[in-house]
Amino acid sequence: MSDETVTDETPTTAQAFGEQGQVDESRSASSRLEELEQEGDIAADYLEELLDIADLDGDLDMDVDGDRAAVSIVGADLSQLVGDNGEVLEALQELTRLAVYRETGERTRLMLDISGFRARKREELIQVANESVAKVRASGESVSLSAMTPFERKVVHDAVAAAGLSSESEGVEPRRYVVVLPE
Asked: How far apart are CA 86 and CA 84, in angstroms?
């Protein structure tokens, strides 16, 4: 049993669910959008302080991309915040997620991009996925790709699924990779 007290502000089952027992999607979608926007605001504040401390110029763009908050830093040369193959970007994203967690008490799937690195990487990965799909269809055999970060694997899995095939991740971090499977 919980020690929480139900107040008049807590929606009843009838309020939270429609007559057929379906969740009132417009209300929950609206509140989820507000939560994601709040995550973006918290992340932007954190990143703005970081840029000030590092004495770097950059503009912050906030958006909601599907079911996650997305924050982009654009501007002058910010390659030092990306690092080789995005390692520094990955670390900054994790620190930003921790800052959001500290404020909200909730885990976040916030995505951080710096100088369009992730956007360019996404396009490259979609191309790799499409080429792999073509190889699998031509040979009828599965194709294993090189090790990838979780972000990279997600992009490939989504592109493979959009092409009508399936894929799976194998291996152990940091050498986890995608295998594109035949039909």
From this structure: 5
Q: 3-class SS at 128?
A: helix
Cα–Cα distance measured from residue 113 to residue 151, given in angstroms and rounded to the nearest whole number: 11
CATH code reported for the domain at 13-115: 3.30.300.20
Model-level pTM?
0.75
Distance CA 46, CA 2 (A): 34
Angle at which helix 87-104 crosses helix 25-53, to 10 degrees, equals 120
* Mean pLDDT (10-residue bins), the chain, 183 residues: 40 40 62 93 96 92 91 89 92 97 95 95 97 97 95 95 97 95 91
How is domain 119-181 classified at the architecture level of CATH? 2-Layer Sandwich (3.30)
CA neighbours closer than 13 Å in the CB half-sphere of residue 162: 10
Residues 165, 180 contacting (CB under 8 angstroms): yes
167-71-65-120 Cα dihedral, nearest 10 degrees: -50
